[in-house]
Design goal:
Elements (H helix, E strand, L loop, with lengths): L1 H15 L2 H8 L3 H15 L4 E4 L2 E4 L1 H31 L2 E6 L2 H16 L6 E6 L2 H10 L4 E6 L4 H4 L3 E16 L14 H4 L2 E4 L5 H9 L10 E4 L2 H9 L4 E5 L11 E4 L7 E9 L5 H9 L3
Parallel strand pairs: 3-4, 3-5, 7-8, 7-9
Antiparallel strand pairs: 1-2, 5-11, 6-9, 6-10, 6-11
Helix pairs in contact: 1-2, 1-3, 1-4, 2-3
Length: about 300
């Protein structure tokens, strides 16, 4: 780096035309500039300037060295600047995972709000994963934060490493085709659960989702038929065509064929849920995470 400092001084002398102006630009004495140039000439083993009384002239070798070193320094400074920006940007990426198209609706709305209102400068990177993977990847630091549906027992999965903040809450709904005789009821009778297969969405087998889904239903496991569906499109098709009914997080149903489906509560039955943002308690991006979460308020 000392060599680059001397070369930068040399370039200043050439471009400003004097040792004195180069000294003023760099806030050092003229003598310090002269000493630096002498040291550079000794290291290069050729003269950069011829010195006369009150006058200096650049040598031919000095002119050639100036052209080469100027490009070298410019490239070097550009590389340093790029590396510094990369390091600064490293902590401006926020990697967020989500489980299903339902949470993605909430996530998309929040990202649009942040961009529209210029709330924060952040590069948001999103990915869809199973609940179990969301938790393990957040613990491992592969994700900074994850959106997970909470039926009331998510704390059992967080352990000592993770914490949570509620970003949305509503009630579980049963989706039923608009063709169904029950479609226009204010609330669905409990018996409807025994008359149709009850679908729930999960792209992978998940004990957490299966048990959480079952906990929202009022009957024993032997009273109804449930089925996991790995494709949201298939689930919507089966419900819209009155082949089955399905379990939905109320308020987050902006999915295909939703306009062919009515979303109802069960009579005399309410099941609350929350969408939790989970993240490491001691995340290196905890400030960025809190800034993001504060935008929900």
């Amino acid at each position: 780096m000392m060599m680059f400092k001397k070369i930068n001084l040399f370039i200043d002398v050439i471009e400003l035309g004097s040792f004195q102006k180069a000294a003023q630009r760099n806030f050092i004495s003229q003598r310090a500039v002269s000493q630096s140039i002498n040291q550079l000439e000794n290291e290069l083993d050729f003269k950069l300037f011829t010195r006369g009384k009150n006058k200096i002239s650049v040598t031919h070798a000095g002119r050639e060295f100036y052209l080469k070193s100027r490009d070298l320094v410019n490239n070097f400074n550009t590389s340093i600047d790029n590396i510094q920006k990369q390091q600064q940007n490293q902590y401006q990426d926020l990697k967020i995972g989500y489980f299903s198209p339902f949470e993605s609706t909430l996530l998309a709305n929040q990202i649009l709000k942040i961009k529209r209102d210029h709330i924060m400068k952040v590069n948001l990177i999103v990915s869809e994963e199973s609940v179990e993977h969301l938790i393990s990847d957040t613990i491992a630091g592969l994700l900074d934060m994850a959106y997970i549906i909470d039926y009331g027992h998510i704390d059992d999965l967080l352990g000592d490493t993770l914490t949570k903040q509620t970003v949305y809450q509503n009630q579980i709904k049963i989706g039923i085709s608009q063709m169904n005789p029950y479609a226009n009821c204010d609330a669905l009778p409990i018996d409807v659960l025994t008359e149709y297969p009850i679908l729930y969405y999960s792209p992978e087998e998940s004990d957490y989702i299966r048990n959480g889904f079952a906990s929202t239903l009022p009957l024993s496991n032997n009273s109804f038929t449930t089925k996991r569906i790995a494709s949201i499109e298939q689930m919507q098709l089966l419900v819209a065509t009155d082949t089955a009914i399905a379990h939905y997080p109320g308020g987050l149903t902006a999915v295909p064929l939703a306009d062919k489906i009515n979303f109802k509560s069960l009579k005399n039955q309410t099941s609350d849920y929350r969408i939790q943002a989970i993240f490491q308690k001691d995340s290196p991006k905890i400030g960025l995470i809190h800034q993001y979460l504060s935008s929900f308020k």
